[in-house]
Amino acid sequence: MRILLVSDIHGNWQALQAVQDEFDICLFLGDLVDYGPEPSPCIEWVRKNASYGVRGNHDHGAAQRINTMGNVGFRYLTSVTRPMTIENLTEDERGYLSSLPLTQFLTLDGKRFMLCHASPWDPMDEYAPPDLNFWAPRLEGLNVDYVCVGHTHIPYTLKVGGTTVINPGSIGLPRDGDPRCAYAMIIDHDIQLKRVDYAAHLTMQTVHDGPLPPMAKNMLEEVYTTGKLKMR
Ligand SMILES: [Fe+2]
């Protein structure tokens, strides 16, 4: 079985289209919206292709029309892109984001999966690093083969006892210094963290043609170009 894991798409339609691997089932790990300029085609793709999905903190915030305050870094970018996201979404799309569960448990190919955006203890917001001491207590009692998470925008796999934690990284806004689109495939129980180039210049053009303040446009361009954000 070929299982595709996608997470943290963040309205970057050009990046999502670069995922061309054939799959039997797709799992979505949250954060369809905010930051990027084209949430709607991303939502449509996930609705059509992902058999299971969970809600990210950004999906929740946009669906509930929560405006945020932030002066620096990604908090600033959230505060200025959230109103644009809310404006762009239809009622039906917001309803879909609201309907996504916080966690999902499922069995595929004889393996038990738990899906959540951030961590089992705090499904939408906790930052979960690839650290055994962090993960061990959070996996107690779960009794699954795979825990699949996103949120950090940094891909990793981590074996903790009988469970493997998989973070496929971010489709639309990588933060690990590699600007390419990140995702994962599990093919016949073999986990592959994948990176692929995409037409980032088209995403940046859409950002530059849009309504964001010049500083936000420049910050997004930096992340799309370098895979990190130094600019404050
Ligand atoms: Fe995210």
UniProtKB/TrEMBL annotation:
Record-linked InterPro entries: Ap4A_hydrolase, Calcineurin-like_PHP_lpxH, Metallo-depent_PP-like, Pesterase_MJ0912
Signal peptide: none
Gene Ontology MF terms in the entry: phosphatase activity
Record-annotated Calcineurin-like phosphoesterase domain positions: 1-184
Assigned GO CC terms: cytoplasm
Family label: Belongs to the metallophosphoesterase superfamily. YfcE family.
Protein name, per record: Metallophosphoesterase family protein
